[in-house]
Amino acid sequence: MISISTENLQQLMPIAAQWVSAKEQVALENGVPLTPDQLSDAKAAGVRHPEKIRVFRVAQIPYPKHPILKAATDATRLISDHTAGIAFRYGIFIKSEFSSNRILLAHELAHIAQYEKLGGISPFLQQYLSECLDYGYDHAPLEKEAAGIANRICQSEP
Predict the structure, then answer these.
(1) Where are the alpha helices (H) located in 9-101, listed in sequence order?
(2) Mean pLDDT of 80-100
(3) Is the pLDDT of residue 5 over 70?
(4) Cβ of 108: how many Cβ atoms within 10 Å?
């Protein structure tokens, strides 16, 4: 098994960014635009360009085939068989059975706002993956921030 640490994360970044970019393109080509209510949630999450977002419903969240990326996703617990959704910049992959889960979508919208705020795919991945390795997925600051934003958005209406 390949070990991933914050020290060798730099070697992973170009491969990870290329994979995320390719998955984003799949979602942009095959997904659907946000509904008016979802656009409102995206704005509440801080997304600057919600009109660019596409939601792609899938049977299973894609798992990287590249051995180093696979090791990174295993080390960070970023993707597993239980993953219900994931944001690839403006493309969101969401398992079909969770497609009406507002809190899940709001969480992914918060990650899109983070991609924008941090300056795109590579800067987001650098920070996000570093945090997942340093703190663990559940305690990573960007992950906790996305969860908090989703909770705030979904509790803002009765």
Answers:
(1) 9-30, 36-44, 67-76
(2) 96
(3) no
(4) 23
H-type alpha helices, the chain? 9-30, 36-44, 67-76, 102-118, 121-135, 141-155
Angle at 135 between CA 74 and CA 7, to 5 degrees: 70
pTM over 0.90: yes
Domain boundaries in the chain?
A: 9-155
Closest to 122 measured CA to CA, from 7, 12, 41, 40: 12
Q: Rounded to 10 degrees, what is the CA torsion of 50, 141, 128, 60? A: -70
Residues 123-154 pLDDT 10s: 999 999 889 888 988 899 999 999 999 999 99
Structure tokens at 46: 């801080």
Which of 65, 67, 63, 62 lies closest to 12 in space, CA to CA?
A: 67
What integer best gives the mean pLDDT of the chain?
91
Please state whether beta strands 85-88 and 54-58 pair in parallel, antiparallel, or not at all (unpaired). unpaired
> CB under 8 Å to 71, separation ≥6 — which residues?
1, 2, 3, 4
